[in-house]
Amino acid sequence: MTRPITIDEQSWIGAWVCVGGILGNIFFGLVIDRIGRKWSILLATLPNTGLWITSILATEIHHFYIARFLGGLTGGGIFVCFPIFVAEISSNNIRGRLGSMFILSLNTGIMVGYALSSVFDYKTVGFIAVGLPVASAILSFFILSETPQQFIRNKNEEEAKKSLRFYRNCRGVTCSKDVDAEFEAIKKGIIEAQGKNEKITLSDFTEKRAMKALFVGFGLMTLNQFSGGYTFINYAASIFELSYSDIDANLSTVIMGGVQIVGTLSSLVLVDILGRKMLLIISASGMCAGMFCGGLYQYLYHIYDLTNVTWIPTVAISGVILFGSIGIFSATFVVFVELLPSKIRSAGSMMCLVVLSSLGFIMLRYFPVVLALIGLQGVLFWCSGFCLAGMFFILIFVKETKGKSLDKASSDDA
Q: Virtual CA dihedral for 42, 44, 46, 50, nearest 10 degrees?
């Protein structure tokens, strides 16, 4: 495809990933308890492979729509499966860090994508990437075990014990007592959560702790999208071109990708030290400040001579991504999984992520239109205000789950 892409087409390229994401959230949310966490993750590699094949063969605009849809389908599935998988295999003292590693791997992929796309065309990038999901599926099949919780739900206690020993790296007699005690605690928690009726009913979602968890989950998903960070990542090059920065747009996106990794690494270190709540507050306040500084620069640019400080937009937007990666982009996916009761964890995660993908669709579909109407400064000020509101939401409604077991974290008195 050689012709320029229109603003409307650009917005649809951005939005189709969220259409796929919504369907991926729903589909994988429905199958994850039926086929298990491991097989759901393996299944998600199929549309990912299709994404890169479609990108290689693309010649028309609708081919890019299909590729983005398949990418969204993969992402929707992975965002349902990975947080649950990681939460269930992790011990209490490292669950936050392992949860942040999921976002770290995602951000590493984004940065590599920025770097490759600044050097190669999209077809070459497709040839480089197409083998990765296949290799990932093969390695996961032979290395990973299903989670202990899933085995217990399937009435396979022997395999559940083997799985727990595998994920606790327990190979001798010394650690067996601790693993056995943890196994009994996990088993007891699942049995109590399921109650007499193992099937999920409407009353499971309307009980007090479930409603509180879903309210917080929906709120964090709204903040994740309306903070503007995810949209900025998707439209990075276009935003930097409009920001009056003297730094090349492609170079700025690579810098931003590197900043994402630094932020996620910080989250990896701090999430089990400062706790989830404090990290989210720091993240929201930092994003608020970065958005406000970027918007103020855009406003003052038309009034004063700012040619000596044209680096400010890159620093401000990179600061937004840095603080977002510390908490809003990473810890949110740890928190809502920890807060959801065991019985509705899969279904509740699906609901939260459908909200995330739906709001992401709105943001990506209409961002170019809103940008054309109110300008970059208007967008930055609006997002800054939403981050400020999000900070107070976290302060009031989000409870700390650091160091608690999944059953304790989701209880009313946690």
A: -150
